[in-house]
Amino acid sequence: MRWPALIFLALLLALQYPLWFGKGSWQDVRELQTRLEALQEANQQLEQRNADLAAEVKDLKSGYEAMEEKARFELNLVKPGEVFVHIPDEPVTAVGR
């Protein structure tokens, strides 16, 4: 009677091994879920960035106001008769003193 119980116990342990330690185990599934959540968050950030860029492209294609605003802020465009004044964010300090 003892041998069938030992064989049954060995079979039970052999079937439980993949569940706890093999591929697709509980720990493996938990790690994959964590990676999936991180990738989904990164995808959401990239989708938001793509939507912002698409809106900017649409604005640039639709009118000259957006194009002029971008040129003024990024390229320091000055129209004839205007004066450009640049105010630095940080105060200038003397170097070497």
TrEMBL record:
Keywords: Cell cycle, Cell division, Cell inner membrane, Cell membrane, Coiled coil, Membrane, Transmembrane, Transmembrane helix
Cytoplasmic side: 1-3
Keyword NAD assigned: no
Ranges facing Periplasmic side: 22-97
Membrane topology, as annotated: Single-pass type II membrane protein
InterPro entries: Cell_div_FtsB, FtsL/DivIC
GO biological process: cell division
Coiled coil: 29-70
One Pfam family per UniProt: DivIC
Keyword Repressor: no
Subcellular location: Cell inner membrane
Function: Essential cell division protein. May link together the upstream cell division proteins, which are predominantly cytoplasmic, with the downstream cell division proteins, which are predominantly periplasmic.
PANTHER family: CELL DIVISION PROTEIN FTSB
Assembly notes: Part of a complex composed of FtsB, FtsL and FtsQ.
Family listed: Belongs to the FtsB family.
Protein name: Cell division protein FtsB
Lineage, opening ranks: Bacteria, Pseudomonadati, Pseudomonadota, Betaproteobacteria, Rhodocyclales
Gene: ftsB
